[in-house]
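Subject: Sanity check before I submit

Could someone independently write out the structure tokens for this chain? I want to compare against mine line by line before I put it in a report. The sequence has 235 residues.
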Amino acid sequence: MRRIKLDPLVFLPGMMCDARLFAPQIEALSRERAVQVACLAGHDSVRAMAEAVLEAAPERFALAGLSLGGIVAMEVIRKAPARVTRLALMATDPLTDTPDMAAGREVLIARARGGRLEEVLREFLPAQTLAPGPGRAGIQDGFVRMGLEAGAEQFGDQMRALQRRPDQQGTLRRVQVPTLVMGGAHDRMCPPRRHEFMAQLIPGARLEILEDAGHLLTQEAPGASLEAFRVWLSA
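---
Independent answer below. Compare away.
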């Protein structure tokens, strides 16, 4: 029997994260399709990150981004809509920084470059933006480990990218591929109402709010997020 060729899947990790953010999903989904995790390091703008993703990605692919990765995913589909076959946006935001948000990022950049990166990472992703429970501290610690390995220079680059990110509301209104919008019920950084707003902008989008997750939902609720991915990839 001839096997149906499935679209490759490209994951875009969040701020200061890497492939470990999607480890449970990669392990499961890579058994049935090609899975790639893009590197967003080395760029200080969302546009440059999107260009790097497109350069390294297959000709056509399903695209899933979390947090900063979701912001980059929106720019990817804006730039090359014909190459993206499906879109998943998680724990993310289509809006630009307010002046107060942009100014606050400057303070964090200075502290990170001044040798206080671990402190800044824990402040950037406080435990309260993750789901309560015995696993919360370990997930935050895992984020901090990834961030410390990435380093203060990458932190500065990615914060600058967030400061200057474009508004993507118009992009979302033009999306014409099967789209999953997924958030965590306990996410204070990108709360459920923001995901409801995004889903309303995208024609035919499917909204999933995971009750036992916060901002790092792929790690907090690996089973539920994997099931949501499977439904999205088969739509």
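---
OP: Matches mine. For the report I'm noting this point. The longest strand covers residues 84-90.
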